[in-house]
Amino acid sequence: MKKNTFLEGAMIATIGIILCKIIGLVYVIPFYAIIGTQGGALYSYAYSIYAIFLSLSNSGIPVAVSKVISEYNTLGYVKAKERAFQMASIVIIGLGIFFFLVLVIFAPTIASVILGDIQGGNTLEGVTLVIRVVATALLIVPIESVTQGYFQGHKIMVPPTMANVIEQLVRVIVIVAGSFVALQVFHLSLETAVGIAVFGATIGCLVAYFYLLRVLKKNKKKIEETALVASHEPRISRKTILKKIIYYALPFVMIDVMNSAYGMVDTLTVVSGLTDLGYDAVTTETAIGVIATWATKLNMIVASIALGITVSLIPNIASSYVKKNWKGVSRKMNQALQALSLTTIPMAFGLSFLAAPVWVIFYGYNALSIDIFRLYILQAITFSFYTTLVNLIQTMNRTKLGMGILGGSFIAKYLLNVPIMKLCYSIGIPAYYGPIFTTLLTQSVSVLLILIIMRKDYQVAYRKTIVLTIKVLLITGVMLGILSIMNLFIPVVVQSRWMAILITILYAGVGAIIYCVLGYRHHVFQEVFGNDILERILRKIHLKKA
Questions:
Q1: Radius of gyration of the chain (CA)
Q2: CA distance 240 to 119
């Protein structure tokens, strides 16, 4: 079985991530059409709770397993390597069972906290059911992830990537086909249809796990034959191995849990907050569906750029950091920030302008959902900077700082969500904008804090990045101004899906041309990519003579 170099591994992993994101984005079109707004809200309740418990039971340990196995494999400690895999498997199965039982037992209490005093819409029984169903995934996902970590520890990247794609494909098939058959063929309840949909996570993971076991069984001898074997392997106790796994896993667990908890705040506060302010069940559940599930899918169009930048940034920053090359750290960090500004700002504002046709393409026309999405998509900007910088400081062994930033963001989000909703309501702004304003505020403050700390501790200078960001904002403003004039003659608000596709293509094309021409004229692209790379690109697309 072929081992992959770092660059090959990064490329394979990135391709897998992109494929999974595409699959995860496309399926929402038929799924939303099948289950509607109320079903979407019910689906989001289950998944947001599942995410936090999945983080508790799963995150960090697969990464730790990969690291420990890689370490022992490099030293030729074959017995210690296999013992580490076995111990991690036992620990993670135990955690999965424990958190599965917690979710099953406390599902009614969690459902009660989510729904508050809402009248109409989803019921306590329905939310309890879907939480209990999705909890079954906790019995499979952790052990499947550890098995992925085993392959990654041997620098074998294709099986884990294939497993992720298989898992996503099977999950999507179960979600769409299962909910359709339940509602349209057997005419079962909406709760049952959503229950089948969330069970897709369990089925998908089970299929992926069997695939990994099959590959492992088939290639186990080859892996052992190619492994380095030490002439003398010291006896490493189970206690030592367990300590090492926990030491490597803990920072990732804490950070992932805080990220999931941050996303769960809206699920726990929006419904009860809006209900207390007098909003009806339809408005409340539409708002939480958009904020917690549907708009998040579309945000990934922009946020995936940050993911790509992070994948390439981390090894480069790590290299400069290890050498204590602070100028290199500053240069690479600024390159990342400039690339984020150059891409996420125009894309997010462009999608905000085209909120109506984009929403119609994926979900059909709904005035309230479009209204929320128009503001929500701007979170993609702060989220991209936020995630990139948190990953960066973690790469530089500033785990405590990362945990502090995430913990502070979570606490601020939790404390401010409802008060800002009430503030919006009191000054005549729709209260469902409140959670979005809170996220924009907390993430912006977190980004600012990290930038200040990086400047203080590593002498990172931002002058060029600030100037470039101002240029990007001005060019984006001009682009939006011209598109607004176009809107007077060709309205963007349409209700037909085919018309929405045509409008989106037209406006996106015109907007991209305006942005690219102005960006090139004002040397924005040259500053980020450099003249040589840009000249090669222009020659390849025949916009400049060789």
A1: 24
A2: 54
